[in-house]
């Protein structure tokens, strides 16, 4: 019989009122304490009876009281130690006790996990150098859909106050739902019958302040967090109830500079024989589209609700129903100006080059260019809903057989309304027929990851109500709905032999439906003043002059426009609403007055259907090799996927090819398209192996191997194809989605060493993933649009000069599974130290730290910075480091946490679908609390203590992307527990 001496961590946990739960695979029978030797725990080697909680007799040792953050660490270490897979664990010592704003913040404290900040808040998480699209997420073991329009859930919609524990599975097992090449994140809400007390009630209230909000006109400085939670047990502890509510209302604040992509080219240096430019114009240099300078402000409001009922009418049966609901609303403005440099037609003087790209110079408007400065007053609204419901029944039918049945429903809905109000400078806004001021000169010089130098000849006009006129108003909604219904049945049968402790078999069926709806309303023209839809005259009661402050104080002032006042003056009969319409697209029988082609609003709308049937068999190992106990599992998961999507095929009105009259929301009929549903069915076999070798009482080696998969983002399966003509007559098109896309596949291997000692733990892990392929968006230059069935015009009319401009073929992009994968490999180190044995005043001192190094041969090609260059895998930082130093004494607790990640690649902040380079960043948070009584405590917290900005760039730091400053967030509040 194996004897294991428990560490101080385990003893402290038990003394604090907690218990260590042993997974059935890791320890398959009850652990009993030898009454004669209380320091030794007897662990039977084979499974003979159901798992019970560990009972530790502490009568002969000094009681160690561990609470708060230290206890959370201990819970997490014990969960990791006895897990049957390579995993990371996160535990709250009490429901509602995690201090983080969302689960995204909480998860970044774990080794190998980093976050991408959006608006200053962690939203998407990266695991082992892979972006959120490779991360599969569940809540209470059930698949979660997302408001993002992809498969990556937005963790900021999950309040940490309503989550009792989280696990990140880095190696899978056959019983886990497939879908995570990077890893699987499992969130858990409360199990009320597992609560330590009969009744538990907590109130948490905090006020918050953002120290940059005062620099942004119209932004709110103050917000709050409020949460309630209750857990109770009734009817002789056979009925449990858990309820929770969490509200967050916080300012959304940022000041930002945004450099736009290098999508134009022109010969600006005049060097003879220059051949470094684009293939079609080798003598040219790349020119940026321009840049933006903006104030962002608004309010984010999140209301989260959690409920669970757990009933055990008899000892061998448990029925649990649980619900999680989140409502996340955001109303934000973006104000400032948008600079359009004017492309190849602009006059360029004194160019400054970085390689073959222009990063500075003076751009002057001429009769053929569109050089201008637009005053921006955007209004964005985002209303998100997340719902998750489930019922689970668990029967212990006999001593050996357990059956579990689960029914679940998860849904997400996002209604994002992107509203813009763009103004241009007039010669005289008071004239009867105002004229666009074409005397435009813009000088700028990028300074890498620092703010640029700028100069405008119209600078004084930006804040002059007698010069600025609203020239365009538009609304562009994105509406996504996603839902999945799932049914699951699992069986576990205990065996009596020297090798296999139990066998598990199960099946799961899910039916997922995703829909995307686009619509549009536009008035006016942003490039100049429209004659048919003339600009709006601003009055003093509609505007305020806004000055820049702080680091941005040298930028020219501008007019902030009262949107309601302006729109009411412009549309006295009511502001028109966006619609899904063809406009005057090819194939339209009667455009009903529309002068623009809005076919994209119809073509980009549609549905995706995904049906998955999966089954698995898994054997749980409990044996010995020599004198070394070995536990773990091996099995295989078989997955059949049937995916399809609606799409409209352009058949040029040929009824023999299925062309139909398709009517839009305003009654316009188009007869060019054939509606159809297309897709693919495939089956995957996913074997997995997890082995845990207990080489000493306190150390173990883990090995894991598996084939894993991640399905393409759900929105990338939608069928869409579109083409449009730019102001200079170039035709560009895309079919960036594809219902025939296959999953990402990878073979992965893990090897780790874990050492648990009296006051902490050390873990070292190696991992290797070989990914078969990725989804590439392939750009085809000089694409023959007409020859491939696209209906495009032979010429367009210049909105300024009225001249006809012949159209030319440009680029067509489409999504494919490429044939090039590659490896991702790395090292992870984690160390935790709790100095519980130090003299009393120092016994609350401790720290935990983790470091990961990740590298990959996978690269993609990007041309956003002009020249085509190799770019790393999105989400990969070579070095990621996190550390927390904490201290507690007689009710006082304080800690400081830092998270560092070096350069990485991700989607451009403030501009969707541009994958760019991000600079290294270090985010520091601080928290202090004091427990004044057993029930009442106060707390002070600072997030982003050093006001760390987000900085991105196009290939090289000299080609500035986004420089975004968020400010510090201060929280002050209290916690009441009863």
Radius of gyration: 30 Å
- Level of helix content? under 10%
Average pLDDT figure: 86
In DSSP terms (H or I, runs of 4 or more residues), the helix count works out at: 5
- In total, how many beta strands? 57
Strand fraction: over 45%
Q: Structural class, from secondary structure content?
A: mainly beta
Straight-line distance between termini: 43 Å
User: Segments where pLDDT lies below 50 for 5+ residues?
Assistant: 1-65
Summarize the structure.
With 978 residues, this protein is mainly β. The protein is 4% helix and 53% strand. The longest helix is centred in the N-terminal third of the chain and has 14 residues, at 68-81.
What this model shows, in words?
By secondary structure, this protein is mostly beta strands. The chain contains five helices and 57 strands. The strands form eleven sheets. It has a 22-stranded antiparallel barrel. Strand 23 (441-447) and strand 24 (450-456) form a beta hairpin. Helix 1 crosses helix 2. It is globular. Mean pLDDT is 86; it is low at 1-65.
Core attributes:
978 residues; mainly beta; 5 helices; 57 strands; 4% helix
Set out the fold topology:
Layout: E1 2-4, H1 8-15, E2 32-33, E3 41-43, H2 68-81, E4 87-91, H3 103-107, E5 113-118, E6 121-127, E7 135-139, E8 142-143, E9 165-169, E10 183-188, E11 199-210, E12 222-234, E13 239-251, E14 254-259, E15 264-266, E16 285-287, E17 290-314, E18 317-340, E19 347-354, E20 357-364, E21 372-396, E22 401-425, E23 441-447, E24 450-456, E25 468-494, E26 500-518, E27 521-524, E28 536-537, E29 543-546, E30 558-561, H4 563-570, H5 600-603, E31 606-625, E32 628-650, E33 662-663, E34 669-670, E35 673-696, E36 699-710, E37 722-725, E38 730-735, E39 744-757, E40 760-771, E41 775-780, E42 795-797, E43 804-806, E44 808-817, E45 822-834, E46 846-856, E47 859-862, E48 869-872, E49 879-889, E50 892-901, E51 904-907, E52 915-918, E53 921-931, E54 936-943, E55 950-953, E56 960-965, E57 969-977
Parallel strand pairs: 7-10, 38-44
Antiparallel strand pairs: 1-3, 2-3, 4-9, 5-6, 7-8, 9-10, 11-12, 11-57, 12-13, 13-17, 14-17, 14-56, 15-16, 17-18, 18-21, 19-20, 20-23, 21-22, 22-25, 23-24, 25-26, 25-27, 25-28, 26-31, 29-30, 31-32, 32-35, 33-34, 35-36, 36-39, 37-38, 39-40, 40-45, 41-44, 42-43, 45-46, 46-49, 47-48, 49-50, 50-53, ...
Helix pairs in contact: 1-2
